[in-house]
Structure formats: C-alpha cells, structure tokens
Amino acid sequence: MPDYRLDPVNQKLSRDGQDIPLSLKAFAVLRYLIEHRRRLVTKEALFEAVWPNVLITEDGIRHYILELRKAFDDPPKTPRFIETVHGLGYRFIGEVALAVPPPLPPMLAEPAAIPAPTPFKTPASGPLTGRERELGELRAWLAQAMGGERKFGFVSGGPGLGKTALVSAFLESLDGRPDIRVARGQCSELLGTLEPFMPIQEAIEELCGGQESGPWAERLRSYAPGWCSLLPCAATCQLGGDGTARPTRERLVRELAQFLESASGDRTLVLWFEDLHWADASTLNLLAYLALRRQAARLLVLGTQQPVETQGDGHPLRRLRDELRKRGHYTELALPPLEPVAVADYLETRCPGLPAGFGAFVQRHAGGHPLLMVRLVEHALARNWLVREDGDWRLAVDLDGMEPAVPDSLLEWVEQQLERLDAADQGLLETASVAGRSFSAASLAAALDQDIESIEARCQALAKRRQFIERQGVDEWPDGTVAAQYGFVHALHHRALHERVTPSRRAKLRKRMGERMALAYGDDPGKAETENGGAIGQKQE
C-alpha cells in the first residue's frame, strides 16, 4: 500500500516521498473531505467550504473529484479513499494518521527597496534548442516591465510548437532573483465557463504561498478584501466588515488591479497565464482593465495561446486582442517551426554522432515541428531503427522511401485537434489525405461532388489558421480548370488523417478523382499523375 502524506501547510500531496501535482481547488476539496472523514460531505457543504459566494456547477466538483481519484489511483466502483454517495455527495474512507507538523519557518519581511538585478540563469534542463531569438524577445519584454512599463506579451503557436517549454525555460532562468516575483495561472477548456477568475485565483494563491499570514496575504487583505472570500489563503478576511457582503465582479476587478500595482512597487511582477484561449470572459476582462490603467507598474503579463485566428469571431480573446492593439498594448510572439539547424542540434544532443541521413528524414516528416520531431525520434528508437555500437549510433534500416507508421500517442494528439473542427472540415481533410501530401482544390471538389469555390474557401480558412494544411500556389489543368493548390504542413499529419479513412472509402474517392483527372488531361493520364504527385490511384498504406 503506498504511503500518502498530506502537507496542509505547504499544500502538497505526496506518495512514497514523491509529490503529486494537484490544482489548488482539488487540494482544498481533499483537505475538507479528510477533515470530515468517515462522514458524508454533501455537495452543498463543498460549495460553501471551497467556493463561498461563487457560482459553480456540479460538473465543476466532479472534475476535481476525478482529479483526486487519478492522484490516488482510486477507481470509483471499488474506492479505497473517496466514496461517492450518489445524489448526495462524497465520503473519505481512507485510514488517516495525524503527524506532528514541524515548526513554521519565520516569515521574511518585504524588502524596503528593490533588490539589485542578477544575471539570467541557465535552466537546469539546459538551453532551449532553436529558441534563442524568442528567449531574447521575452527578456526584452521583461526589461520594459522592470523599467516601470506594464507589459502584456502573448506567445502564440499551434499545439506542440513549444509555447509552454519556451516560457518555462524563460521563467526558470529567473529563479533566485530577489528583484522578480513570478506567479502562474492555468486556464482550463473544461472549467473556463464554470468558475470565473480561476487562473487569477491560482496566481494569487501562488503569490501568497497558500498562507493566511505573511506580507503578501496581508497586502491582499488591505487592497483586495473582496478576493478573501474566494481564496483559502485569505479566508479569515471579513467582507464589508461583517463577512456578509457579496463582492461584485466590477469590485473584484478594481481591487485586484490595485493589489497587483501595489505588489509591483517592491519588485517586478511576472504573471503567466497558460492556454489563454481557454480563459473565461471574466479573466480576460480583468486583463483588459489591468492593461488600460495609467499608473506605472513593474508588471509583465505573459499569455500562451493558440493563434487568435483559430478562434471564432466572437471569442473573447479576439476582443481582448483588438482592444489592446487599439491602445498599443498588444505584443505577440508567434512561434515558427524549428529551423533545420535547430533540428540537427536537437538530434546531436539526443543521439550524438547520428548519420546525416536521419536528420534529413526527421526534417522531411516532422517539418521542424518540435512535438512531431520528438515523437518521431522516440518512434525510431523504439523500433530499433537506430542502434548504438561501441558508443556510436548507426542506422539499422534503409530510410529511402520509408514512411514511418504514426505512433499511437501522435494519433491521439491529432484526434484531439480534429475534434475541435466540425464534421465537414474533418471530412475535407480526410479526403485531402487520399489525394496526397499535396493536392488541388479541384480534386477535392470532384471527390466530394462540390463546387471548387466552396472547397477553396474552406481550405483557405484552415490554411489561414495553419490547421493541418497550407497554401502552395495555383494548379492549372489542360482543360482550363484553375484551382488553389494546398499541402499538408506535416507529413505525419497527412498519414494520421489517411489512416482514418477506410479502404472502401479510399477506393471510392480515388475513383472520383481519377475520373475527373482523366477528363482534364484527356489522352495523357501519365502527365496527370506526374503533376499531382502520383497520388491518384496509388495505394498509400
């Protein structure tokens, strides 16, 4: 039986000495259940204890219970720790032994003056391959903030391009600097609409260190008393003098701005909000208000996000971007794919002395996409395409013409991206995968029995967002047909989509494309195949 330990002072859960990551709200739910162990805790009681004065649905509670079940490896049908009482609530049934807590370390007072800046550290994980320019950009943003200019910077890029890795390496280089304080908030696709200000709450909890006492918690009570009802670390604060007042969202926004501006007077404050495209409207409105205030503040707000173009016209993130851009506050750093030299550097670090042919193979199939690159190398090592002999790596297979199978982990990742598209666009991309790595909108129109203009419009919308495909020019056929040419951004994306299509459907689509090409090229079908990558009519297993 694993040894689980709960540290309420540092808000940590560990198993056999290893910390288990938990969100702050999940920890609060666990702590409350343990404090009332062996007794039924109703959902209403959890609402009052963990979310006072905040509207949250039962789905929100179920999300945190699921997080706890995963942490304890506790199946709901045969629980060892958390028992569900259907329709009523939950009960903690695990054995609990209380330990004598160690004495708390003395709290350090806030510095009277801003400490002198110290150099950037090299992250413990080593330098970030191929992102030196982008790291320099983040450091330039920090310099502006340290000069008293509130700075809002957004790192954007599609899934797997390394947004989190970049910002994490940047913040790790700030570790130990007394002139900078960092706090993080995670936006959630599931909970974005269930709990207002959730990433803001997480950032404030980190600033306060989860403690009810100390300089940061006292400052919060002084400048933002309305937030005390939302945060366990400041739960002793009274609202309106009697604890009964319910703060309005306008009041919460105004108070937090004042709190952060006060905090940035002692040191530069860096706030990182991850996956900002999933933030709730209340969080984005607060950021907009914070950006538009005129008071000087040593404040850097970093947001990682998928490109704004991937969001619908009515998405609140687009409105935030447009408002900040009008005021001159919007700065975006769009991550490009890695350059071939960066791919080569990664491979040399991962497997020193690799044959040059393998680097070209990785570049061809991953296209500089960091996640695809890493997964492809892992796939090659697992399949023993690369073997090590006498300290040197060599290729055990002939890579010429080889098409790597798509790893299961990558298929799952592609599926997650596809699920965010409507059924029509999914079908369009599947059809395109049958046409080949590069394809004409005219071929898709023939296969789907639609007009070229509508196919081009849908392809162009996907290409503009760099969702799977990109524009590659114009295709002209001998019969006068003119259509846009597109191609898959990454070869592995193409193959993953191709594997979604059943053999019978592939044959049907190829037949339609082939018949249309025969009409266009007349008595020269060989030229049709040559100019269209030879995809039509060929097997791509």
Structure characterization notes:
The protein has 541 residues and is α/β, with parallel strands linked by helices. Helix content is 43%, strand content 14%. It has helices at 24-35, 43-50, 58-72, 132-146, 163-172, 198-208, 215-223, 249-263, 281-292, 316-326, 340-350, 356-366, 370-382, 408-418, 423-435, 441-448, 452-464, 491-498, 503-521, 525-531, and strands spanning 4-7, 12-15, 18-20, 41-42, 82-85, 89-92, 151-156, 180-186, 268-274, 299-305, 331-334, 386-389, 392-395, 438-440, 469-476, 482-488. A five-stranded parallel β-sheet has the order 8-9-10-7-11, with helices on both faces. It has a three-stranded antiparallel β-sheet with strand order 1-2-3, with no helix packed on it. Helix 15 (423-435) crosses helix 18 and helix 16 (441-448) packs across helix 19. The longest helix is centred in the C-terminal third of the chain and has 19 residues, at 503-521. The two termini are 47 Å apart.
